[in-house]
Amino acid sequence: MDQGNNSRVTAFVLHSLSGPQELQLFYFAFFTLFYSSIVLGNLLIVLTVLSEPALHTPMYFLLSNVSFINVCLSTFATPKMIVDFLKEHRTISFEGCMAQVFFQHIFAGSEMMLLVAMAYDRYVAICQPLRYAAIMRVRKCTGLVVGSWLTGVLHSVSQLVFTVNLPFCGPNKVDSFFCDLPLVIKLTCTDTYIFEKLMFLGSGLIAMSSFVLSLISYTVILVTVRRRSSAGMPRPGPP
């Protein structure tokens, strides 16, 4: 901690899976394999979509962006966690902790909005198939992706702009393998009740709106498919 009028936390101690050295090595190997599989699998999807002209369609364009965000979500904290299994002291600087918070909310917020964009794409494809090509043009798809990223950035900035100014001068042990915002703000030296409510309100708003929009889209799709199936079924003949 820096010394001055008030000591300020300059690093946080992360709590990861504990155990004897042999168990730590097992964790290191297991999570390395698991993380590598996730990254390689999602990168394979991205490269396949980029290299195959037949997949240059709105659906696969959005899918490749979701796969890319999955890579980002897996990478913002997992590599450090894996390396920490080989360390005795697992710490992260204050700046590194804030960076983890920032990127976590960017990627999470962007992915939720991209899932809504994919739901909208399926709605247009199934409910308005004759207008699909005219609606889901390149500009529209690009706008959906850019809008998703901008939503993630705004969501992350709104969460972080207050966090960095909070007084961290007390405990510095985070009960997680990465800097999870609800756990981090509990380490401040001030009452964060209002901030916690605003934080959960912001995160809950984007999560709930994404869920409701996706639910509405897929509900309309199911109703449309059911109606078309019923209309196409042969009527029973007279006995």
Provide a quick synopsis of the model.
With 239 residues, this protein is mainly alpha-helical. The chain contains 8 helices and 3 strands.
Structure, explained:
This protein is mainly α and 239 residues long. The protein has a single domain, classed as Rhodopsin 7-helix transmembrane proteins (Rhopdopsin 7-helix transmembrane proteins). Helices cover 69% and strands 4% of the residues. It has a 3-stranded mixed β-sheet with strand order 2-1-3. The chain is globular and about 65 Å long.
Blueprint (SSEs and pairs):
Layout lengths: L10 E4 L6 H31 L6 H18 L2 H7 L6 E3 H34 L4 H4 L2 H26 L9 E2 L6 H4 L8 H40 L7
Parallel strand pairs: 1-3
Antiparallel strand pairs: 1-2
User: What spatial order of strands do you see in the largest sheet?
Assistant: 2-1-3
CATH topology description: Rhopdopsin 7-helix transmembrane proteins
Reading off the top of the CATH hierarchy, the class is best stated as Mainly Alpha
Query: What's the domain count?
Result: 1
Average pLDDT confidence is: 86
- Name of the CATH homologous superfamily: Rhodopsin 7-helix transmembrane proteins
Count every helix, treating DSSP H or I runs of 4 or more residues as helices: 8
Strand segment count: 3
Question: Overall 3D geometry?
Answer: globular
Helices and strands, in order, run as: EHHHEHHHEHH
Short key terms for the protein model shown above:
239 residues, mainly alpha, Rhopdopsin 7-helix transmembrane proteins, 3-stranded mixed beta sheet, 69% helix, disordered C terminus
